[in-house]
Design brief:
The protein has about 140 residues and is of the alpha/beta class. It has three helices and six strands; from the N terminus they run βββββααβα.
Length: about 140
């Protein structure tokens, strides 16, 4: 399996068969997300969500053009996702918060660092270990 990604964003209906995320910020390699990639969907606690809700397959990925006249720009990507699974147990900020030893190599720490050290919603690339860890929730 190729690179896997995770997105933390507002999710209106976690049981929807398809999701669309427009002009999402990307960090930690998230700008390379492409059609066919696996993505784990976290309903943002900033918007009342509960964390990991679904896994899916990216069906469309369109990078947003860089605005003219802007020196510092966080790349953004719009993606469409077909749901392939619903999380069977909870994984969110509360469960990941204890994993704060940034260099311990644990998948929980990687997720805490990438999603919650900065609370903004975003798309991030995951290590193989983090992807395998998230697969245990489905």
């Amino acid at each position: 399996m190729g690179v896997r990604y995770a997105i933390k964003a507002a999710v209106l209906d976690a049981s929807a068969p398809h999701f669309g995320f427009d002009a999402q910020k990307t960090m930690y390699g998230g700008k390379h997300v492409a059609a066919g990639d696996t993505v784990y969907i976290f309903a943002s606690e900033n918007g009342g969500g509960q964390g990991l809700v679904a896994r899916g397959r990216v069906t469309l990925a369109i990078p947003s053009p860089k605005p003219t006249g802007v020196d510092r720009y966080t790349p953004r990507v719009s993606i469409a996702v077909e749901r392939t699974g619903i999380a069977r147990r909870r994984l969110g900020r509360a469960e990941l918060k204890p994993f704060d030893r940034w260099r311990d190599g644990r998948p929980e720490t990687e997720l805490n660092f990438k999603f919650y050290r900065q609370a903004t919603d975003k798309i991030v690339a995951l290590s193989g270990g983090a992807g395998a860890f998230l697969d245990t929730f489905f």
